[in-house]
Design goal:
Layout: H1 2-19, H2 21-33, H3 43-46, E1 52-66, E2 69-78, E3 86-90, E4 105-111, E5 114-120, E6 123-126, H4 133-164, H5 172-195, H6 199-222
Antiparallel strand pairs: 1-2, 1-4, 2-3, 4-5, 5-6
Length: 225
């Protein structure tokens, strides 16, 4: 019952993650393809589809409690005094946020009106609004949930059929081999999601990894102990 219940939760959770992916992945691909505004012109600049940079002055930094972590904010003033200050939430404490102090000069990169990173000297730190990371992690987690949940559901059905026909007790290798194959399949799928920019290629690699791992598992189980 436990594998069936857990699998029944994991597979729908993966489906929900996948349903939320298309827009985020499309945005991530657009951002990865963005070029500096100095190299392009026309509609890319007008619509903010290029990477723009501008100088700014640090006015204040603030760390707000956020669950077990903290949200790291920096308030920046613009060179044009007619423009209001703006705030950027950075990811983590370093390497930029922990060194900032009021009066420091930084460079801010923006894409589609959102600040995507802040540079201070030779250091750069991404903002929480930078596209890409969340979508990639969501894809990796979704693939892991789908693979493990599917295996648990299949294992539950297999165990139920064995009980129905009063099959012999399950041997250790009948559990260890599929578990190892599942771990390999999850590792390949997560690595593909994190390392391959093309989504369709990442899914194809994940599917191929699952097929190879489970085919090897079935072949090992058919061999005499």
């Amino acid at each position: 019952m436990i594998p069936a219940v857990v699998g029944s939760v994991m597979v729908p959770a993966a489906m929900v993650l996948f349903a939320l992916l298309p827009g985020k992945l499309s945005e991530a691909r657009d951002f990865q393809a963005a070029r500096p505004c100095a190299e392009v012109g026309g509609s890319a600049v007008e619509n903010g589809d290029c990477l723009a940079t501008r100088p700014a002055t640090v006015l204040a930094t603030e760390a707000r409690p956020r669950g077990r972590d903290a949200a790291h904010w920096v308030t920046l003033g613009q060179d044009d005094e007619d423009l209001p200050p703006f705030r950027v939430r950075l990811r983590g404490e370093g390497p930029v946020w922990e060194k900032l102090a009021p009066g420091d000069q930084v460079t801010v990169a923006t894409w589609r009106a959102a600040a995507v990173w802040v540079e201070a000297g030779n250091e750069r730190q991404d903002s929480a609004e930078r596209p890409g990371l969340g979508a990639v992690v969501r894809l990796a987690v979704g693939l892991a949930l789908l693979i493990v949940g599917s295996v648990l559901l299949r294992a539950s059905g297999w165990a139920h059929r064995r009980r129905a026909v009063r099959a012999p007790a399950v041997r250790a290798r009948q559990v260890a081999v599929p578990a190892a194959a599942t771990a390999v399949a999850v590792g390949i799928a997560v690595a593909a999601a994190l390392l391959i920019a093309n989504v369709l290629l990442a899914l194809a690699v994940a599917a191929a990894g699952c097929a190879v791992a489970w085919a090897a598992s079935a072949r090992l189980l058919r061999r005499p102990a």
